[in-house]
Design a protein that fits this description.
It is globular and about 50 Å long. The protein is mainly alpha-helical and 220 residues long. The protein has one domain (29-206). It has helices spanning 29-50, 56-68, 75-83, 102-111, 126-138, 145-159, 166-183, 187-190, 193-197, 199-206. Helix 2 (56-68) packs across helix 3. Helix content is 53%, strand content 0%. It binds zinc ion (2 copies). The site of one zinc ion has 8 residues, from helix 1.
Length: 220
C-alpha cells in the first residue's frame, strides 16, 4: 500500500506520538520514517518503471544521473536521489548537511529545479506546499523551531489535499513568531510544544479551517 495519502483521506493519528501521521517528524521516528517513505516510494516506482531491478551500485549511478538533471524529474525522485549520494564534503546525505557545507547548500538549491505536479482536484500550489514542508522537515537543522513546528503540523493536511490561504499562513506564522518572542528565545528550541500550549496560538487554530492542526487529542 502506498505511504502517500490520497486526496480527501481522513487524517490518521500516529500511534507513536500526539500528532497526526507525518506531523510528528522529525522528532517522532515513526512519522519521520513515513516522511522519508514519501520520497522513497516515488524513487522505487521511477526505477521499476524505467530500469527494472537494479543493484545498490546501479541505484547510485541512476541517482547521480537524476541529480544532474533535476528539471527532468519529479521532486520526490530528485530528493530520493540526493539521499542515495553521500556528500563528499561533510558525509551527510547530499543536500542535507549543515548550512556551513557548501556542497550541500548547492545540492539543496538544485533540488528546487525539480518538477512539481499538483494532483487532480487539489487547489493549485498544493504540491509545492507539500514538497517545501517535506524538505523543511527532512532538513530541520536550518529552520527556526517555530517554522519547523508550523511546517510539520501542516504537512498531514497538505497531503490529503488542503492548502491554507496566504492570509491564513501569514497570520499563523506571525502568531507563532509573537509566541516565540513571549516565551523567550530558548524555550521553543528546547520545547517546541510550548508554542502549541500558548493560548493565543490555540485560539487562532481553534477558529481556523484547521481546528485539529495540533493532532487528534485535545491537549489543552
Ligand atoms: Zn508520530
Ligand atoms: Zn555536505
Amino acid at each position: 500500500m502506498a505511504v502517500r495519502p490520497e486526496i480527501g483521506d481522513p487524517l490518521r493519528p500516529c500511534p507513536a506520538c500526539p500528532a497526526w501521521e507525518f506531523g510528528g517528524a522529525p522528532g517522532c521516528a515513526r512519522c519521520a520514517g513515513l516522511v522519508d517513505a514519501l520520497v522513497e516510494e516515488a524513487w522505487q516506482a521511477y526505477v521499476a518503471a524505467d530500469f527494472g531491478s537494479l543493484s545498490p551500485a546501479e541505484h547510485a549511478d541512476v541517482a547521480r544521473m537524476v541529480v544532474q538533471e533535476p528539471h527532468r524529474h519529479d521532486w520526490r525522485v530528485v530528493d530520493a536521489a540526493l539521499d542515495l549520494l553521500p556528500c563528499d564534503e561533510c558525509g551527510a546525505r547530499l543536500g542535507s548537511g549543515p548550512m556551513s557545507c557548501g556542497s550541500c547548500e548547492v545540492a539543496h538549491g538544485f533540488r528546487y529545479a525539480a518538477i512539481e505536479t499538483d494532483r487532480p482536484g487539489v487547489p493549485p500550489g498544493n504540491e509545492h506546499a507539500v514538497r517545501v514542508n517535506v524538505s523543511v522537515v527532512r532538513r530541520p537543522q536550518v529552520t527556526s523551531a517555530q517554522e519547523l513546528l508550523a511546517r510539520r503540523l501542516l504537512l498531514p493536511a497538505l497531503l490529503v489535499g488542503h492548502v491554507p490561504t496566504t492570509a491564513q499562513a501569514q497570520r499563523f506564522s506571525a502568531a507563532l513568531k509573537d509566541a516565540a518572542a513571549r516565551l523567550g528565545k530558548s524555550t521553543p528550541d528546547r520545547d517546541p510544544a510550548a508554542l502549541i500550549r500558548d493560548p493565543a496560538i490555540a485560539a487562532l487554530v481553534a477558529e481556523s479551517d484547521f481546528p485539529h492542526l495540533f493532532g487528534p487529542a485535545d491537549r489543552t
